[in-house]
Amino acid sequence: MKKVFLNGENLTIDDVVLVAKGQAEVAINEKTRAKMAKCRKFVDSILKNDKAVYGINTGFGILSDVKVEHKDLETLQINLIRSHAIGVGAPFNKETVRAIMLLRANVLAKGFSGISLETFDKLLELLNKDIIPFIPSQGSVGASGDLAPLAHLAIVLCGEGFVMTDDGKMVETAQVFKAKKIKPITLKAKEGLALINGTQVMTALGALAVHRVHNLLKLADIALTSTIEGIMGTDRAFDQKVNIVRAHPGQAEVSENVLKLIAKSEIRESHRNCPKVQDAYSLRCAPQVHGAVRDALRHVEKVITTELNSSTDNPLIFPDEKETISAGNFHGEPIGLVMDYLTAAVSELGSISERRIEQLINPVFNQAPAFLVKNKGLNSGFMIAHVAAASLASENKTQSFPATVDSIPTSAGKEDHVSMGTTAARKCTAVVENTVKIICIELLTAMQAIDFRKPMKAGAGIEPVYKLIRKDVPFMENDAFLHPMFMNVLKKEYEIVKAAEKAVGALK
């Protein structure tokens, strides 16, 4: 199995996905161990004098002025974790939790947190043994970090709380540790705070969303081209001369993809000299819309990648300078803003897809039977497939109001501006999921429309997609149970892209 080595400097989104899916183990080298040990040694040296240092021998938040006796420092840390582990709502899925664990480990490996090697090793042990904390998804305001959800991670290291079974149920950590002969840790000074002060929940969600949207963008271009074929639209709007005079890179990429996918299309050739002048905006302006989403993703990916390798603790420990600094690297605003941005962008991808589905089923726009089925009236065809897409597109709009414009002061006013970044990331995840479904409904509908163009074949990149989908989804001669047909397209989310790329080469 592949290994991902952590040092806090060069973790990538692809690494996150590999570990999240259980396709890589996690390790560190001796140089990284030495860096963490040096930081921990400085924390221990602070304990030898009587100076109050936040997070090491004081209370937290508004209680930071309360000095804690040396004999109570271990109790202080476990109290912190127990009191902060009050997440609510449905749990994060296993892939998300594995990503969260990886990101927290990478922050610790950067060497400014003051964690002990024993605690760090326990985190890696659980991750590599696939012992996954049960982490409720709600309860973070995204400043002072993702305190509540990360506390649910930390409490498992201490042998308390719950872990997740493969089917998503809760099991007591103590029971699992006993069965697997795993010893819990005892948190030392600063360690509880080092485990929970950070943006790793929102950043994990962001990294996984970015990875999925990369595939979604290609899937959307395939669906767009399929609709052009099904509706007998034109490819003139995708001419690269159009993109040269408005030089946004995403726009050019979409046009290049469509022209590659539609190449050698018998359907396109059959109506090259037809009297229709131009298509509706949802087809003609797709490079501008899909392209803008691509350009947005580039910015989001840059921010997420930076955050993957950033220290987000408070206080930060600088052993070389013999200094601790209480600051605000835990504030989730950078992630929250780009998650809101990506949410709006992906919502637009679903919105324009829903409009293309309308084009496909409406005989005013498409030279095919209403709702793409024979014997209309007796049959409803794809009428409610479009309604389902409209429902999802509308739901996306309700999720697209930015979370980061809200702030509720917490901790008796000490933490008076928070990011709501984790809410933004959770909303983004939901909108991405909805939009994948809308695009798959468009593909399902477009395949039916392409059948009305037989015996002409679709383009070089669409014909293999048509054949792949038709393996499990037959042409609907009369009304049939549509849900299984949709699910058979949805489960091919990645396979569809691979089929197209195998035929025409890599898509942008």
Which features characterize this protein?
6% strand; 3-stranded antiparallel beta sheet; mainly alpha; two-stranded parallel sheet; 508 residues; 20 helices
- Our Rg estimate from Cα atoms comes to 26 Å
Q: State the helix count.
A: 20
> Which percent band covers the strand fraction?
5-15%
Order of helices and strands: EHEHHEHHEEHEEHHHHHHHHEEHHHHHH
| Distance between the amino and carboxyl termini | 29 Å
Strand order of the largest sheet: 4-6-7
Helix-strand makeup class:
mainly alpha
For the biggest sheet, the summary is: 3 strands, antiparallel
From the spread of the alpha carbons, the general shape counts as elongated
Helix content: 40-55%
Secondary structure tally: strands: 9
The overall pLDDT average reads: 95
Stretches with pLDDT under 50, minimum 5 residues: none
Molecular structure report:
The structure is a single chain. The radius of gyration is 26 Å and the shape is elongated. The model has no long low-confidence stretch (mean pLDDT about 95). The strands form four sheets. A three-stranded antiparallel beta sheet has the order 4-6-7. Strands 1-2 form a two-stranded parallel ribbon. The chain has helices spanning about 15-20, 30-45, 75-85, 95-110, 115-130, 145-155, 175-180, 190-195, 200-230, 240-245, 250-260, 265-270, 280-285, 285-310, 335-360, 385-400, 420-450, 465-470, 480-490, 495-505, and strands at about 1-5, 25, 90, 130-135, 135-140, 160-165, 170, 315-320, 325. With about 500 residues, the protein is mainly alpha-helical. The longest helix has about 30 residues, at about 200-230. Helix 14 packs antiparallel against helix 15 (about 335-360) and helix 18 packs antiparallel against helix 20. The chain is about 55% helix and about 5% strand.
